[in-house]
Amino acid sequence: ELKVEQNPLFLSMQEGKNYTIYCNYSTTSDRLYWYRQDPGKSLESLFVLLSNGAVKQEGRLMASRDTKARLSTLHITAAVHDLSATYFCAVDGAGSGYSTLTFGKGTMLLVSP
Amino acid sequence: KAGVTQTPRYLIKTRGQQVTLSCSPISGHRSVSWYQQTPGQGLQFLFEYFSETQRNKGNFPGRFSGRQFSNSRSEMNVSTLELGDSALYLCASSADLNTEAFFGQGTRLTVV
């Protein structure tokens, strides 16, 4: 059974600080996703990381993946209040033939002045 | 290119009733998956359809069912609603099996 663990589950940080969210998963995966969710809203796709270990960056967010370690990180640089949201990591099953995603519990990020 | 469209966006139902939610995938996508999001259980997979066939099913009671039509649109049905069925229901479409998933805006179901 594919399991995804995120930590921390809650993160309170000050504007301007850097921090990293971690995502561990239990079996091989073709795609790893990072999503952002604002309260009451759907999932906004941030990054899709394939098993080749590429690093992707968008604004103050950078995502990377270590396929061997089954670990992905979402790094936040110089946080701003607008980044306050819940961030989810999700993975599919490698070669499963399905598009089914298994999600972590999410990291609630609160950025304060 | 239009995204994934879910209707209705909001729904209030009474315990014991049944409900049908609809999902129109991105044009050309053949796979549709459904997820339930609740504060207690998080995001959980319900089922996945591909070319009108259910390919995968999550661990939910038989009250939850779904289907996919020849145009790839999908519906999910929940019968004999319970308070615990209150949730955000998300639909995702993929071009093919095991390809990138794109999510719709969700349907917020409240059972009273």
Gist of the model:
The complex is a heterodimer of chains A (113) and B (112). Chain A is mainly β.
Descriptive report:
The complex is a heterodimer of chains A (113) and B (112). By secondary structure, chain A is mainly beta. In chain A, strands 2, 4, 5, 9, 10 and 11 form a six-stranded mixed sheet that branches. In chain A, strands 1-3-8-7-6 form a five-stranded antiparallel sheet, with no helix packed on it. Helices cover 0% and strands 56% of the residues of chain A. In chain B, strands 2, 4, 5, 6, 9, 10 and 11 form a seven-stranded mixed sheet that branches. A four-stranded antiparallel sheet of chain B has the order 1-3-8-7, with no helix packed on it. In chain B, strand 5 and strand 6 form a beta hairpin. Chain B has strands at residues 5-7, 10-13, 19-24, 31-38, 42-50, 53-57, 64-68, 74-78, 87-94, 101-103, 107-111. The model of chain B has no long low-confidence stretch (mean pLDDT 95).
Low-confidence stretches of chain A: none
Q: What order do the SSEs of chain A take from the amino end to the carboxyl end, as H and E?
A: EEEEEEEEEEE
Instruction: Determine the structural class of chain B based on helices, strands and strand pairing.
Output: mainly beta
Task: Give Rg of chain B in angstroms.
Answer: 13 Å
Helix share of residues of chain A?
Answer: under 10%
Spans of chain B of 5+ residues with little confidence (pLDDT < 50)?
A: none
Report the biggest beta sheet of chain A as strand number plus sense, adding barrel if it closes: 6 strands, mixed
Strand content of chain B: over 45%
The DSSP helix count of chain A reads 0
Number of strands of chain A: 11
Structural class label of chain A: mainly beta
- Overall pLDDT of chain B, averaged? 95
Overall geometry of chain B comes to: globular
- Greatest interface and its participating residue counts: A-B, 24 and 25 residues
Keyword list:
heterodimer; A: 113 residues; mainly beta; 6-stranded mixed sheet; 5-stranded antiparallel sheet; 11 strands; B: 112 residues; 7-stranded mixed sheet; 4-stranded antiparallel sheet; 0% helix; globular
